[in-house]
Amino acid sequence: MKTSVNFKSINALAIPATIAGIAEPLLSITDTAIVGNIPVDGLESLAAAGIVGSFLSMLIWILGQTRSAISAIISQYLGAGRIEEVKTLPAQAIYLNIALSILILLSTIFVIQEIFELLNASGKILQYCISYYSIRVLGFPLTLFVFAVMGIFRGLQNTYWPMVIAITGAVLNVIFDFAFVYGIDGFIPAMYLDGAAYASLLAQSIMAIMAFYLLWTKTDISLKLRLPIHPELGRLVVMSLNLFVRAIALNTALILAVREATALGDKYIGAHTIAINLWLFSAFFIDGFGAAGNIMGGRLLGEKNYNALWLLAKKITKYGLVVSVVIMAFAGIFYKPLGALFSNESLVLSAFYAIFYIIILGLPINTIAFVLDGVFKGLGEMKYLRNTLLVATFLGFVPMLFLGKYLNWGLTGIWLAFTVWMFIRGAALVWKFRNKFKPLLQNQ
Fold it and tell me: What UniProt keywords apply to this chain's record, in alphabetical order (predicted)?
């Protein structure tokens, strides 16, 4: 049975994926908003949360790429009608991922002060970074396990259960944040920044338990490790390694941006922390259509249904652009209240408002890049995604970042570099998709 590509089928996957996607950065945004309003050392706590959050995001994105690789392989086998052949692969991939996450955890925990000093953290901010990270990092293997399970569900064309897991984690994180950061009289002492870290860790633990239970009860996929090694594990590792290198390039841009913003001063890293969290929130919102492209694209490739694949890319790009325009309008009207949610420091807010227009105007460019990025992951085109990110980062973002620094553009230069970065990524994906799949339409 051929996969149908229409508004209903796309949004049946995209809407739950969007909700799940925005729930993930809400974990970070909640910390940022609540921490930014701490009555004691709120500015320093906000800066530390931003620095640690960026570093943890880098680690998670680098090792979390197995999610996309698992999803791509499972969806391609599903489309080819051979799903039974990959039943043992997910468990092998998950155990490999967890082992790598523990290795990374152990390798960073002993040099964490040096890592944050490289990001220009010093004094009280550095102390807060070390304390906050030492708690948050314990949830790192749990997060990667949840990501892998979500990849399995996506490969099976199911975004509902990942949505349930993500929503539960986000809601619980908000509740735990208020309880642990500000405390509950006579029951829980106020722990301020450390409380935000414990809140995230507890929410991540519950999400991992849910992911395990749902995979066990809602699918035929077993987490029991069985030998021999599945033949597709090699392809999965290669795909993951390409995404690994890609994620390093991606996070090089994010970390360099944090480093340069930190060097500008406390108010600027505070403003950048707010901006990057809202940027990531909008990215995950739009990326719901990228997830639909990932899931359906892999299945259509397995079916060799190239006409439907071409139609899918056009439709999800159009739907994503509509969503981005709605976000632009909302953000343009409510940008001042949005900033006030994260900080009550006037210096931080003025720096944030000065660059917010760049974020808003760049949303349509981001949409094309994010949506087609999802399609290419579903197609297994990880090598091209890797090369695109390397070019965009080192021939686009980095030169623009240091040009802005040389010209003393401050945060404006950092966010113009992000715009150039996203433009190169989107343009390269449009060019590749047209050149590879348009000729195949003529042969069908």
Answer: Antiport, Cell membrane, Ion transport, Membrane, Transmembrane, Transmembrane helix, Transport
